[in-house]
Specification:
Bound molecules: SN-glycerol-3-phosphate, calcium ion
Number of domains: 1
Number of helices: 15
Radius of gyration: 21 Å
CATH superfamily: Phosphatidylinositol (PI) phosphodiesterase
Structural class: alpha/beta
Largest sheet: 10 strands, mixed
CATH class: Alpha Beta
CATH architecture: Alpha-Beta Barrel
Distance between the termini: 64 Å
CATH topology: TIM Barrel
Shape: globular
Length: 325
């Protein structure tokens, strides 16, 4: 009997201390008011590079699929061709996600800004996915093109009565693209994305604080999220980065490793929203949600919609049929 009591006490301490500690350091739903102030959905489902688990990242099917799942935000990485066309693309080079080696042999290591838009349009940005993920391959992905920024916006702008996705735009490697922020903001203004009716449906994000500062000048009305990678936190310290974020942004977007309550709590106490990347597994969603994350960048928006209870059944076969892929 005495032994049982000891075992129970030890178990209670083992479970209770971390759970209680976490709740104290980072109370659940602490970011809800911050999100409400910004009119940003809480908790937020951000389709990272589109529904990129099931379709080639940052291509038309990835974004159409994310739309049909009704993800709250379509996430994209903004870059620019040599001749000034804004486009959606993640990597610095074309090697991993296109057939650049076949079409432009010897140029695999060149960064995307060294290619004209005409050249980029010759590339197949879909077939790599079928080779990398045979279990998710589809013939219809073959020959997908790199998307122009305005093509991406067109996908996001198609509205139904009760749903319009938001856009979550990253100025990627912004220092390589002088003036890219102004160019993007001009397009967004022209297309009505800065209007009050779209408040909370557009967020800017960057790992580069200089880019966020430019965005703050150009479009102060659009919330900004300061992305935090693990090397940044190691080099500069998380608190230092939070300090900077509170001057430049409304939120932070740390890598999932930086979701412990001793990171999440202080971010909220500074009035910052916190969206973690890139969270694909159910156990990560559960754990990070418990630690107080306000939403996730995920390649699997379908899974996150289900996890948050924003949908109770998603038939991916039907979704693919719906988008025509
Ligand atoms: O934008 C959030 C997350 O996408 C940052 O990482 O490398 O996937 O753009 P990355
Ligand atoms: Ca990104």
């Amino acid at each position: 009997m005495k032994l049982l009591r000891i075992v129970v006490i030890v178990l209670l301490l083992l479970v209770g201390l971390p759970v209680g500690g976490s709740l104290l350091m980072s109370p659940p739903s602490a970011g809800q008011n911050i999100a409400a102030e910004l009119s940003i959905p809480y908790p937020a489902v951000v389709a990272h590079r589109g529904a990129s688990w099931d379709a080639p990242e940052e291509t038309k099917p990835a974004y159409l699929l994310a739309r049909s799942i009704r993800a709250e935000f379509l996430e994209m990485d903004l870059q620019r061709s040599r001749d000034g066309v804004l486009l959606a693309f993640h990597d610095d080079t074309l090697e991993r996600t296109t057939n650049v080696a076949e079409i432009f042999p010897g140029r695999e290591k060149q960064t995307i800004d060294r290619f004209s838009w005409f050249e980029l349009q010759r590339l197949d940005a879909g077939s790599w996915f079928n080779k990398a993920h045979p279990d998710r391959a589809r013939d219809s992905f073959v020959g997908e093109k790199i998307l122009r920024f305005e093509d991406f916006l067109e996908i996001a702008e198609f509205t139904t009565d009760d749903y319009e996705p938001g856009i979550y735009i990253e100025t990627k490697a912004a220092s390589r693209f002088p003036g890219i922020e102004r160019q993007m903001v001009n397009i967004l203004r022209r297309r009505g994305w800065m209007e009050e009716s779209r408040r909370g449906r557009i967020i800017f994000q960057s790992f580069e604080h200089e880019s966020l500062a430019r965005l703050k000048d150009l479009a102060p009305e659009v919330p900004r999220v300061y992305l935090i990678g693990s090397s940044m936190a190691d080099e500069e310290g998380f608190d230092e980065l939070l300090e900077r974020a509170s001057e430049l942004a409304e939120g932070v977007g740390p890598v999932g490793y930086l979701a412990w309550p001793w990171y999440t709590g202080p971010a909220h106490r500074k009035g910052l929203l916190i969206h973690h990347y890139t969270i694909n597994a159910k156990w990560q969603m559960r754990l990070l949600n418990f630690f107080g994350s306000d939403g996730f960048f995920t390649d699997r928006p379908d899974q996150l919609m289900l996890y948050y209870g924003k949908d109770d059944h998603i038939d991916m076969r039907a979704k693919f049929q719906q988008i025509g892929y």
